[in-house]
Amino acid sequence: MPNDNGRRALSEPLSSQAEGVTGDVVRLMPRDLVFVMRFMGESQHRLQSHFQDFIRAELAAGGVTTNTHPMIHLFIENHATLLRDFVFSGVSLSRQFRVDEIERLTGDTTSMIRVDIWDQFKSHIETAEKQFQSQAGTLPKLLSAFEKPPGPLGSEK
Predict the structure, then answer these.
(1) pTM over 0.85
(2) Which of 3, 34, 71, 130 is deepest in the core (most CB within 10 A)?
(3) How confident is the model at residue 155 (pLDDT cuts 50, 70, 90)?
């Protein structure tokens, strides 16, 4: 039921389309869902450290050190992160598994992975909708930056 501002009350059921779009996405899983590796923890730190040392040495060879550029550590850290993420993404993307391969590998003959993914999708869609609804009151002020400017610049010819 709409409230005074024409919006639904937050306690009402969310978009009935959430279930439909969830079903659509799950139906597309065999084609569109891939599982990729993700390196975490010490592996990330180790590769980050490697690239920081590498960049530091390369810059020093060119005469750029912390003595000549006291804030260079920020540059080094940012670029090491970019190189680390590039490497991990490249490796991860080269080793993708489709949902049917994961089901076969895990022995999931009942498609529980798909059911779990469906549940999570629906839940996250509903959470995203609730979050948007909770912030809807601030939208008019935010969207005012996108309004047509008043006066001759905003008038059409």
Answers:
(1) no
(2) 34
(3) low
